[in-house]
Sequence to fold (699 residues):
Amino acid sequence: MAFTHALRYYAGMSDKPVQDRIRKLRAEIERHNHLYYVANQPQISDRDYDRLYHELEDLEKQYPQFLTPDSPTQHVGATQHMGATQHVGATQRMGGVPLAEFEQVRHRLPMMSLDNTYSQSELMNFHERLLRLLPGQVFTYIVEPKIDGVAITLRYEHGRLVTGSTRGDGTMGDNITANLQTIRSIPLKLCGERPPPAVLEVRGEVYMTRDGFVTINRVREEAGEEPFANPRNAAAGSLKLLDSRQVARRPLDVIIYGIGELEGIAFDTHAQMLAALKTFGLKIPAKFWTCRSMDAVRVALEELKTMQHTFPFEIDGGVIKVNERTFYEKLGATAKSPRWAVAFKYESERAETRLKAITVQVGRTGVLTPVAELEPVALAGSTINRATLHNADEVKRKDIRVGDQVYVEKAGEVIPAIVGVNTSARNGQERLFRMPNKCPVCGEPITQREGEVAYRCENLQCPAQLKRWLRHFAARGAMDIDGLGDALVDQLVDANLVADPTDLYRLRHESVAALEHMAATSAQNLLDGIAASKQRDFWRVLFALGIRQVGAKMAQTLEQHYTGIEPLMQATPDELQQIRDMGPVVAKNIYNYFQTAQNRGLIQRLQKAGVNLKRTAGAALKSGRLTGKFFVLTGALENFSRDQAEQAIRALGGEVSASVSKKTFGVVAGAEPGSKLDKARTLGVRVMNEAEFEKLIRA
Ligand SMILES: [Zn+2]
Fold:
């Protein structure tokens, strides 16, 4: 829609209005990005935003000569507004090729780390040293939250982001520009009234939100991958990925709190600097304190501590900085840290308790997770009696034994975890944990897949899995079965009425009504809900099947590419991998799923029950005869302007590129063709004249 509209609107225009429109759209989008990602105060609906975004994207496609690397469309993974958690698995539009390794970047000003203090007296030592170094001077302090993330530097030259790097050893870091560009709150171009300085190097911390961390670990555990130990590890691991398209799916964000090299700008105080960075569109700490005395610093740190769980990220203390930057040079630095700042770290919230037992849970995908059953203990405002142990390797690595006194930490309120064992409290009665070799629920033998740390019960009829599977099947995002709640799922499985989801479609009124707490009307409601689910979209069924790593988004993508279940069941891994966003692992999972006799039987029963397994009209991927074909134009055509020829190709799904390569489908040669024609001949690429081209597009 947007595309054709834009075409009609701009056809025949000279370049000037187009350029103006592009400039305007970019400014608008940058402004709304900032409102959404940095200020957290969106002013327009996602839909209106998408409209602006797509108009810009279409124009840039149509006029590639105006596409610049700082356009908001060039944020890797940029598509539309998405909440941080939704970034996991978000559709990918752009992004470079994976790197073999990171380039190194030399920091022109070293990236120092801060000295840590843990007590009031150490903090006082810091203050007294400053008094000695600055006799008779008046200075103030700034207190900021100490974010538990990964330190980074962003270098802007004339307002454009040129490099983003890690701290590394403080002198040399990794060039992770492409990865940092995926973070929406990092502007590719500085905004604001004032002209940007020649050089502005800013420093800050990349973090993963707590919610994002929980989501990403759940996805990893379901996929049998090692979960991240804490949000900081998750953020660090994400920034180290060599494929920025993967980074774009990680829920990362940034806070900027410092500077490196500057040219054409200077700041007298830290507070002034933060204010300036904010006007440039950078995300600075939402909360900080200006303090005139050490007492005020103490109060600020106390206040920060009480509010630490209200931040979307983890903090592990506060940072105290001298506000007056004019003193920095005089104060200097030790080998490692500046003398004008110090970190004050809070004691992590930790408790010691007895590990009574280790039980094993079976997840929906059959993954077995050891869980610590604890003597109840108060921690960070709640009572903890269980903690995940992630997997058997972790139990072994930490040498956790049943009966041990263990240390429990709540990683920023996220998930209670066992961080260690008080080995001195052992009395010899402790027992080593061994992963059972049979599923604790169904008794079938468990297996470990190649390359995975997780153990699984592969029995699809396993009641533990079955219950979770049925819940997933009936959930709102999947088959959306009204009246089939968790308790009823348990009842149906326990009463042996349902052994897989297809049995739902064979339930009889009298057997449902005979269940405990079940009245005739609610039985009828359930059966009606089940009957209604037969009409759900094809992708919902695909999602409901619970194929590993096939989420709602992937299921929708599959529906775009396949008319129904039969062609999908016949797809080879190679064929599946042709689909954008489809990695080799997912392709293999889908293929394997349909190779299993058990699953094929299940599909057959769904078909027999009358469940919709065909693509909904309109869900097909928009495409034309020339989809996936690249054209190169050279020389002048008689009946088409260059633009018209390009539009004709694009209207049929084809693409136009500037240079000839082996990938080129055809070179359209008009009068006085250039060197592209020679190149086409050398490479053996098909050359067509205007008449042949016309025939092709009119066919
Ligand atoms: Zn089992």
Summary: Residues 1-8, 77-96 have pLDDT under 50 and may be disordered. Residues 15-38 form the longest helix (24 residues).
